[in-house]
Amino acid sequence: MQRLTAESVTLAYDRRVIAEELSVGIPDNSFTVIVGPNACGKSTLLRALSRMLKPTQGRVLLDGQTIHSMPAKKVARTLGLLPQSSVAPDGITVEDLVARGRYPHQGLLRQWSPEDERIVQESMAATGVAELADRYVDELSGGQRQRVWIAMALAQQTPLLLLDEPTTFLDIQHQLEILDLCAELHETQGRTLVAVLHDLNQAARYATHLVAMRGGKIAAEGAPAEVVTAELVERVFGVRAQVIDDPETGTPLVVPLARRGRAADTPRPAASGAAAAAS
Amino acid sequence: MKAVKAIRTPGGLSVRVDPRAALVGLLLLAAALAVAVVLVGSGDFPMTPGEVVATLLGDGTPAQEFIVRDVRLPRVLVALLVGAALAVGGALFQSISRNPLGSPDVLGFGQGSTVGALTVIVLFKGDAFATAGGAIVGGLVTGAVVYVLAWKRGVHGYRLVLIGIGIAAMLTGAIHYLITKANLVDATRAVVWMTGSLDGRDWSQFWPLLAVCAVLVPLSLAYGRPLRMLEMGDDAAYALGIRVERTRAVLMGSAVLLTAVATAAAGPIVFVALSAPQLARRLTRSPGPNLAASAVMGAALLVVADWVATSAFGDRQLPVGVVTGVLGGVYLLWLLVTERKAGRI
């Protein structure tokens, strides 16, 4: 089943066309990751799926309805989004920011129900920011801040959550922390996650469904183990690489070939024997 | 550290109240009304605050009745409303542009209203009523021009501020041109209008102002929650189900109109729009546009400034615009210095 699909959409900023006749479906309960080289249209596709960019042709469907003609708040109760850049208002506390995620469930005279309160506390606990509740967001580190934004998106309580490059600007430790958090949300809460990621190896490790894009088109899609091959990496990213098994998880691991003359003297291990060769 | 309280009814309705913001708002309102009473009692025919209140309740002598009802009360009420309208307009613009400098008097709306008013005074020899109309038209046209020029896939903060400053500079040129074209009588009228004054304001200024405020202030307050979400960026607001462009268009229209009618009633009184929202915010210590607190802060600022202008220098009365200009100039310098230290400009 696919609650969120794009049907032959043409995506453009002003007159600059990014993608034409693009069709893609997000499998329910998947952790879908969209990868591709810079300017391949992956963030644009995510913007279209989250109804921030209106396709010039075709349509994006959410539960069978055209997403752009649905009431904005109704969409916001089904589909959450973690944008690439958000601004924390000056002097706002973590708890107040997370509480803003409840907005689509509230009204002018229904501003704060006991349920709102409970969900905000749960969202902060799930992302490990509960002990920061009274701190000001401006005082936090980059990794903590990103977890606060994710907590806000969680408080929105949407079955679908889209994340636009959630690990950009974070160091490797915090990148892994955020991705582990996403994987946990996907597994324990059964949410459908869609993320745009830069790092192909991280994508292969965490995704249950991978969408590879190039030049505004879908180059391949499916389970990472099937999709990520040396041939695909060269075709999509223009990088010659060997693909071995990740010694930790057994998922595909992309190792770019060394520049001519700089390879190690030892013969290259065959793809399947990678784990043994690495140790 | 904030303690936002929720007030709930058995029917499942609830509102969120920040106790500190509510207290600040009530204290400011009390201060504004107290100064207003003092202001009604001061002048060539002085009255104690007790006499003023008694007269307002209908227990005054005929002379007191006349002074209060026909002369001073409308002027003070105009001051309260002008202050509130300017402050709400300022708070809306600062929030939309996400910049404390993005207030209507920096963006050229005051100058736009001035060009409209001077055009009526100098070119058409219009009366006070026509001048007010010219000021409103000038303000609205300026608002529309700034909006169209700043529009490119949404109005963004810095573009709005930069375009507004450019427009303000051009309009200042137009103002000087109009004054050089005027004869002595018209030029004097023009300069008096431009200073911003509450002298001689009566009920005919009050009612239209009240009508506009009665519609637009509640409308702005109702849009306060979406506006607060917009401060996190357009994408985050979209994600929460805000109709971003509509919210922004409604609130910009509301802010331009509030600023224009306030300017039409009292001339371009500077710096209230710039400073009231920031002062309110520092007192409430609450993020977000603080519209209600800004409104009472603006009303309080303007009656205090008017009291200073009329009473503090003995017999020499000043137009209120001079006082807000001097106080506001000091504030603007302080703001520029702190913004610079914070690395925001």
Report on the biggest sheet of chain B. Answer: 2 strands, antiparallel
User: Which fold name is given in CATH as the topology of chain B?
Assistant: ABC transporter involved in vitamin B12 uptake, BtuC
- From the spread of the alpha carbons, the general shape of chain B counts as globular
Question: How can the largest sheet of chain A be summarized?
Answer: 6 strands, mixed
Describe the structure.
The complex is a heterodimer of chains A (279) and B (345). By secondary structure, chain A is α/β, with parallel strands linked by helices. Chain A has one domain: Rossmann fold (3-Layer(aba) Sandwich), CATH 3.40.50.300. Chain A contains ten helices and twelve strands. Chain A has helices at 42-49, 72-78, 94-99, 114-126, 142-155, 172-189, 200-206, 224-227, 230-237, 274-278, and strands at 4-13, 16-26, 31-35, 57-62, 65-66, 79-82, 160-164, 192-196, 209-214, 217-222, 241-245, 252-256. Chain A has a six-stranded mixed beta sheet, with helices on both faces. Chain A has a four-stranded antiparallel beta sheet with strand order 2-1-4-5, covered by helices on one side. Chain A has a two-stranded antiparallel sheet with strand order 11-12. In chain A, β9 and β10 (217-222) form a beta hairpin. In chain A, α4 runs antiparallel to α5 (142-155) and α5 packs parallel to α6 (172-189). The longest helix of chain A has 18 residues, at 172-189. Chain A starts with a strand and ends with a helix. Chain B is mainly alpha-helical and 345 residues long. Chain B has one domain (44-339): ABC transporter involved in vitamin B12 uptake, BtuC, CATH 1.10.3470. Chain B is built from 15 helices and two strands. A two-stranded antiparallel ribbon of chain B has the order 1-2. In chain B, β1 (5-8) and β2 form a beta hairpin. In chain B, α5 (109-124) packs parallel to α7 and α6 (128-150) runs antiparallel to α12. The relative contact order of chain B is 0.16. The model of chain B has no long low-confidence stretch (mean pLDDT 86). Classes of the chains: A alpha/beta (279), B mainly alpha (345). The A-B interface holds A 13-14, 50-52, 71-77, 80-93, 96, 100-101, 103-104, 108-113, 117, 134, 153, 156 and B 1-2, 4, 6, 8, 12-16, 98, 153, 222, 225, 228-229, 231-233, 235-236, 238-243, 285-288.
